[in-house]
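Troubleshooting: if your tokenizer reports a length mismatch, compare your output against this known-good record of 287 residues.
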Amino acid sequence: MGYSIAEEKIFNSGHAACPGCSEALAIRYIVNTLGRDTIAVVPPSCIAIISGPQPYSSMRIPVYQTTLESSAASAAGIKRALKAKGNDHTKVVVIAGDGGTYDIGFQALSSAAERNEDFIYVCLDNEGYMNTGAQKSSSTPYLAYTTSTPSGKPTPKKNLAEIMAAHGIPYVATATTGYPDDLARKVARARELKGMRFILVLTPCLDGWGLADNAGPKTSRLAVESGIFPLYEVEDGVRYTLNYGSKGIPVGAYFSQQSRFKHLAQAQLDEIQTMVDVNWRRLQTKF
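Known-good structure output:
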């Protein structure tokens, strides 16, 4: 039986996201699940544009817009300040993109995880620097077209979920907008825990990936069902739980929805399929 989503009206309509934006959908489930007793930290990103400037923010909670490299440090400072004032109930959540998480903000994120700082970090992963023209990040998949890798990215996507799990923090999870009940449940689970919690949410970028306006959830489901982006949880770095995974759908079916892979030859598709199969088998040994 699926998780019953209980939303509080925190995220408003009328924001500046593109029509059909997966990040806006993810933000809705994240902040509406966390509730009003929450402070959000947002670095420069599509998320900053979506949340908007005060007093015209799309979120009915305080939002601190920090620098691109210091989201985790800012969140740690805010949470420590709250505790110093005797407030141990207000939640602090970072909502950042992959550029500010995998790359520019990783030093602060890893340091916060090493200290087991008490906040939630959510990475909305659209697999590139989409807010500045769809350049590649270390989250961009192997051979995907971006404006800075027009022949295809020559290196694989960094496995950030496993990197964060290796820190031994209380909770790591992967999620996507194609499974909203699973996403909301994981946010609710993180809300009840203490220490560092990290949730990686795949959020297809319609423009950057070359998708139709209504294709975000379907595409993210194909990412899961092809085994490219399995949904799972890790507690304390060692206890793995699989939520949704490969259904044997070939990666070509997932790629066919997107223009960023249209340049691939069959031999390249076969190579990627082999890589995905190996990674899926490796992950299954942990459950």
